[in-house]
Predict the structure.
Amino acid sequence: MDLYSDCVQSGASKPAPRRRVAVVGLGTVGLPVALAFARRFPGTLGFDRDAERVRRLRAGVDPAGQVGAGELRASSLQLVAEPRALLDADFFVVAVATRLTPDRRPDLRDLEEASRVIGAALRPGAIVVYESTVVPGTTEEVCGPILERASGLRCGADFTLGYSPERVNPGDPEHGLERVVKVVAAQDARTLDVVARCYEAVVEAGVHRAPSIRVAETAKLLENAQRDLNIALCNELAQLCTRLGVDTQAVLDAASTKWNFARHAPGLVGGPCLGLSPHYLAAAARQAGMSPRLFLAGRRVNDAMAAFVAEKTREELEAAGLALAGARVAVLGLSFKENVADLRGSRAADLVSELCAAGAQVLVHDPLADRGQAAELHGIELVAEPGLTALDAVILAVPHRGLEALALRLASAAPSRRVLAGARAGRDEPGARPGVAVLLDLKAAVARADVPAGVRYWRL
């Protein structure tokens, strides 16, 4: 199938020339996009500057654990790490990560580097579509000039820009790329038509043509910021319910009977994208001379949840006659959300830091996470299931499939020792209850009725 074979070519009756797609960045966003294009357009290039990542993908191993070996090996996607391979392409899709600096400002270094690499390969007539989350205006005011400098070509004349914000939801097969409407935008009508037709060939759910690139950029930030604020509302509600002695989930169940109530679950909210967008919106507001009041309010609540859970762990242990300092606490799940391996933006890691700072001995178990990445990103040494022994508390932080059952098994197990408040000489206290004293369930994944008798159970 010729890419663009049915696209409009302004002022010409001859068919549009054949083009080749290159997806730049093969992480949790870029890899699904590249595979989807390759299914419709054989010969699609998948480029990543990380040669080791490319080597593993060629071997059928997705470092993020989202794509199986069979799909990788069966795909016509051509995986490359050499920038010169991009010389064969003229429809580029950029899906590299954007981040925050230590002072929580937009960090576009990877996006800028990707633009320089593409610019060196640009030829007249090329189209560059960005999917990365950015501050409104970035595509045209930052990326476009970089492409011009690297290529010597003129943006809008020799090559054009498009934008289509990613909507990948890792761990959610029901809302994969093909099944979710794709927003598309471009700097002129002809480019928009080409970009829309290309994505229509890939996305079964269809596309929405935004009137400008800035509209599409802003819409992406709104999608994430709205979710972040809604979860923050539930997190603050959970804190109130805890003080009132009211079950948060029961409150949500009752409120959900109203037809227009939008239910969200409280919990540790992180990841490489969701927590980014409020800060990018705030940056846009500051650039426009506005002092944002709401964009970051939810992020402050969500960022404080790890400290809240650590304090609640202390309270529950003390109610059971134990102290947090010196207690052995198992944290189950480290990735940023359930059933994915990605450790970027992990708020469970923040919880581990809070517990360690309080003097707890924390054992972290995550069956999906990469041990090397856990050590590199968070300084955490993962513990295999057999090492989760002699526990005083279990925190089900990220309920990957199977971890609910593990939490209950651990809550039923008898420890080899007890460390009780006021008994720090390493000897058991007479009459100490065998087994874990406290089970904290941050996503309400465990049925209360299944919790062993004598174990204190608390959920957000």
Observations:
- The first strand starts at residue 21 and ends at 24.
